[in-house]
Write a structure and sequence with these properties.
The structure is a homodimer. Chain A folds into two domains: about 280 residues, Aminopeptidase (3-Layer(aba) Sandwich); about 120 residues, Alpha-Beta Plaits, CATH 3.30.70. Chain A is about 30% helix and about 20% strand. The first copy, chain A, is built from 14 helices and 18 strands. The interface between A and B is large, with 96 and 94 residues.
């Protein structure tokens, strides 16, 4: 999933790396998986690198992880290159390409999110453990477990068949969690080597255990921050309360103006370019397990579902745009009370966008709206943030159908076709620079806890991922 | 002015106390007042104590300050007692009381607010300096400078007349800035010794330099905090945005519902018990200097004035109730963006109340309003905080007229009669426990920076305060 800005530093450093396999052979009592396979052995080695891309103190761990990956891919017989970027390396690997075969690019990222709050982890985020059939570690789901399944699927096919049925390109980056700042430029510079017919990414989720899931859409994103300024400093609310506008009161009014009472976004023109849901989508989604209201209530822990009228909660997440407050603040934040009128207040907003909304145009409309609705007595500054376009492709294109077949094979179940509520800006970048569409073959479960403490990935999904890769390359070759 | 809850610790400790007078005789180059008087010498000694009552690490400084004060009062020939409380001492001093004379109580406090952010002070808050005719130090205005003027006025009268014209009781506490938690109980236990006809306090402000100011009203206060809870933890705004209510969005809507667009408070029954402004008040206040719109704009630095329609800004501050957001928070507070739906959001509210509003009744109405207006999809908790009743007395009572005459004498100018926007809960407590009304003879200037960096108090106001005390006791004796 998309990058976050820098999280605070982890509580302790994971600089000392355990030699590959060492910890597994001297297994901790918590490692209760019945038999450790060579594949899991590889994954555990991969997971032990604290490759936190946002934290410069982990730059060495990110590099060590890239080098381990390079060695692994090389050992499989792939032509592998570690490319420097201004920050963390890109690793490229390819088999011997044969004229006339399909060119397939598989993307993944070996960097991970920070781990704090560390005290909420049941086990060390960089000492993977298997408990209850799941692998617990930072990056187990996002994205090391999912990407390594593809690597190991290729390894297996190469071992079994002495070759692959397609011209494969692995593209693995170490900067996804910081917004892939160098990848677009890398793609431009290596456009010819990376030319491909289709791209596959396993960096999203399955709707429920055992339900193979093909994602064909992603929401886009537009972020901004608004700051309201009133008095030159915090004022005593007794001496001045009533005379001047309170920026915290004003930010509340401004934020409230962005939605109608029923939850619909009230920003002028916000829905103008929204592509309506198709009937087949609504029908398909109504039968998708794991995303019913009861599921969403359970996974979020919210007291109730709420949102734009006329759509199910799942439709709202997958195919409708939103305006969210990611942070609001102003005035006294400590315990008890302090009777001040704050000098300023802020709100951090993000807008999830759907086809065919344009992030820049939306941000212009948002800025205009916020400025026009700024309450009296305060001054407003709107700071635009990062953005990314929404994405949609046809799940029933020839590649989409190949992916569906591969999913059916790997999981022995009928795949569901969904869109994702999150944003993977790189998918849009691939389309723009490489001219290829992306198949989203997510393997993480809804409770994978990505970006959070106790991230986890089922062993069976890891194994299914290996089968999926084998089936996918076979299907795409047809 | 009323207490605030604990501020963060000061940047460095002021534990090492300079012996009385020492630093003054070895004056720093910044002390550019032409001649240091014995009165200023006393004040500087008093100001050097970092008597920050909210910070337990300064408990020793608070006590040392109380002991210095006790010694000073004793040296003047007053019968002085330092009374222990569960926290900081109360100091009581009295002259020899004579049957049939007026009993006058003068209250003050020797504790001060924290000093952070220390880096914004031009000079050390506990190393008083005189610059541009003002004394710069924490507590110079609030309240050491004002209260010591009364002490030194009494000293002067005792020296000049070998006695006072009234039965005087000095009551000085060290807990005002933390809400006087032990004073009411102290008053109850010492009710007989503290019996008095009238009370005088100099712990408020003058409207403008040279304009003697009699305060006859104070606003009351009611504080609370509302917390809205949604998902059990912060959610990824892509994966879940649209499905559930966002507590930060909801808190904004809830806060916005508290006011009409024009600034009037929208809480049902909020204005029911508000005593209308009298015509003489509006007429008097329209002529009070220093509180015109231009003054308020200048002192606050706000881009514009704003508040309840139908009243001038000064009328709104002195005689109309308000609902203020003192703090609002939820979600990501750092730099840049983090696309979460926060698990919860809070707002800290305070309501400034006027006669004849009842804080408890208002808090019930507020709680009811907040609960009824809580947006869907979140749960609300309202935590009531501290409160204090509003206060009003007749400025033209015999004691009020005596105070006006004393102000006229001390400043050689016609006094103005005002109410204060702030709250001094102890004034209401005095009325309830001791049965006496309070004269508010404020000496601080509007830019005194109380509770803020660079607190200051004009030397001429300090000197006028000494004259005021002498004139006041004379007038009250009549």
């Amino acid at each position: 999933m998309e990058a976050k800005t820098s999280d605070p530093e982890p509580k302790f450093s994971h600089g000392a790396l355990v030699p590959r396999g060492f910890a597994l052979r001297k297994a901790s009592p918590n490692v209760n998986h019945p038999s450790v396979t060579p594949e899991l052995d590889d994954l555990f080695s991969f997971l032990r690198f604290s490759s936190i891309s946002t934290d410069s103190r982990h730059a060495g761990d990110v590099r060590a992880c890239a080098e381990w990956l390079t060695a692994k891919l090389t050992s499989m017989g792939l032509a592998t290159e570690l490319h420097e970027t201004p920050k963390h390396p890109v690793v490229i690997a390819r088999n011997v390409h044969v004229e006339g075969r399909r060119n397939v690019l598989i993307y993944g990222h070996y960097d991970v999110q920070p781990v704090d709050p560390l005290e909420l982890w049941t086990s060390d985020p960089f000492k993977p453990e298997i408990r209850d059939g799941r692998i617990w570690a930072r990056g187990s789901a996002d994205n090391k477990g999912q990407m390594l399944a593809h690597v190991l699927g290729v390894e297996k096919t190469l071992r079994e068949n002495q070759g692959l049925p397609v011209n494969l390109i692995f593209l693995f980056e170490g900067e996804e969690e910081i917004g892939s700042p160098n990848l677009a430029s890398f793609l431009v510079h290596h456009r010819d080597e990376l030319r491909c017919d289709v791209i596959a990414i396993s960096d999203t989720g399955m709707v429920a255990p055992g339900v193979p899931t093909l994602g064909y859409g992603l929401r886009g994103l537009a972020c901004c921050e608004a700051i309201l300024r009133g008095p030159k400093g915090d004022l005593h609310s007794g001496l001045f309360g009533g005379a001047v506008a309170n920026p915290a009161t004003a930010i509340a009014r401004l934020v409230a103006s962005m939605h109608e009472l029923n939850g619909r976004v009230a920003i002028d023109g916000f829905y103008d370019d929204v592509r309506p849901l198709e009937n087949w989508e609504r029908k398909m989604w109504s039968r998708v397990p794991g995303v019913e209201d009861a599921d969403l209530l359970k996974v979020t822990g919210s007291p109730g579902l709420f949102g734009e009228p006329g759509y199910t909660a799942t439709e709202r997440v997958w195919a409708r745009p939103t305006a969210e407050v990611n942070g609001i603040g102003g005035g006294y934040q400590g315990e008890g009370s302090k009777t001040v009128i704050p000098a300023e207040a802020f709100v951090k907003l993000s807008f999830r966008l759907v086809p065919d909304q344009n992030p820049r145009q939306i941000m212009n409309r948002v800025t205009d709206f916020l400025q026009r609705h700024c309450p009296p007595g305060v001054e407003i500054e709107v700071r635009p943030g990062h953005d990314g376009k929404p994405y949609i492709t046809d799940p029933n294109s020839k590649y989409g159908l190949a992916a569906q077949t591969a999913l059916r094979t790997a999981f022995d179940a009928e795949p569901v076709l969904i869109r994702e509520g999150g944003s993977i800006p790189i998918v849009q970048t691939f389309r723009e620079i490489l001219g290829a569409d992306t198949l989203l073959l997510g393997l993480a479960l809804p409770d994978a806890q990505i970006h959070a403490p106790n991230e986890n990935f089922p062993v069976e999904n890891f194994e299914a991922g290996i089968r999926l890769n084998q089936a996918l390359l076979g299907e795409l070759a047809r």
